[in-house]
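To assess whether ligand presence alters the predicted conformation, the chain was also submitted together with adenosine-5'-diphosphate. Input:
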Amino acid sequence: MAGLTKEKILDALKSIEFEGGDNIVDRGLVSEVVIANGKVYFALDAGNEDPQKLEPYCRKAEDVVGALDDVSSVGVTITAERQKSNGSQANGHANGQANGESKSQAGGGPQGGGGQQAAAGQAIPGVRHVIAVASGKGGVGKSTTSVNIAMGLKAQGLNVGILDADVYGPSMPRLLGLNEEPQTGPNNEIIALEAYGVKVMSMGFMVAEGTPVVWRGPMVMSALGQMINQVTWAPLDVLVIDMPPGTGDVQLTIAQQTPLSGAVIVSTPQDLALIDARKGINMFAQVNIPILGLVENMSYFLCPSCGERSDIFGHGGAKEEALKIGADFLGQIPLHMDIRETSDAGRPIVASNPESAEAQAYLEIAAKIWASLDSQGEDTRVAAPKIVIE
Ligand code: ADP
């Protein structure tokens, strides 16, 4: 595998002629190339042009790169500058502001959608609800909360998946004790891994630990597009997306391009974290995605020996904040050693010790989330804006 380099891939891609006598590389259509354990990912950028025009090149690029030695699979995505909406999209208006600079993903890779253009904003076939778990900053326990909410939904008898969208610092391999590389199926679909009956996908499964990967915005979207559209998720009642921490462009783009039923915001009680949480809420509001509610993590301390509760951070901030913005308050999770230990050991507490008080706190939150999703019915999902294809 050592023989496979970015240069070899670009050289191979240079054999694909583009109209006007150029090739697709020299024309500047090929994005950053990412190689991960024999899997190759890159995007073809349509710029302001019609992204459909690039479809045949996308297929050729797959063939050419797929024929190289040491390549086990190829994922090619088309990105394009978002065109001005004609107002036909339900929430095109709300997205107007963000449209200017954001790239939008036009194809989830032709192989994933059976030759169909599968825009990331379209509903994922066979997935009833997609929810995002987000936080305004890192370290508040967002990933721990995501995984335990997913386990809590599973405990309700639902089919659940979890997508680790933090390509910079994936945590699902650690939280679920998984480190295998996903297999690909006959149609190049990526077969989701499974832990405690929950389907899981993370960039951490593709990239060897400690391997530095330089991600540019469009690359991140391309990789995420594949993890959303090319993975064998169906059938699922809920896909939980563990969002990257913070509220930058990548987060906004995911929020815009994924058909989200709603978002859960995780915060710690400290005021500082709540200011960040507010940013998270505003980000989803900007793209018209309902806030399913706030979770206050590390809310209070349960003494492991006597069971006494201490509000070491002065809990309750998230509840007040939820009330202020009219969002639901989903519940409080104690600061507890067992939560940290089970997380680090790849055995989320809801799956490994469901009877514990800590697990019960997550289970209650999961039940509230499901009640809220179920009351939305099937067809009230906020359709994310789609790329405009003339
Ligand atoms: P984030 O995704 O927000 O960066 P993580 O979920 O990775 O945060 O959590 C950060 C650290 O805090 C981890 O070591 C995790 O085990 C720990 N942690 C999260 N929630 C709790 C909790 N309620 N009690 C104790 N430790 C927690």
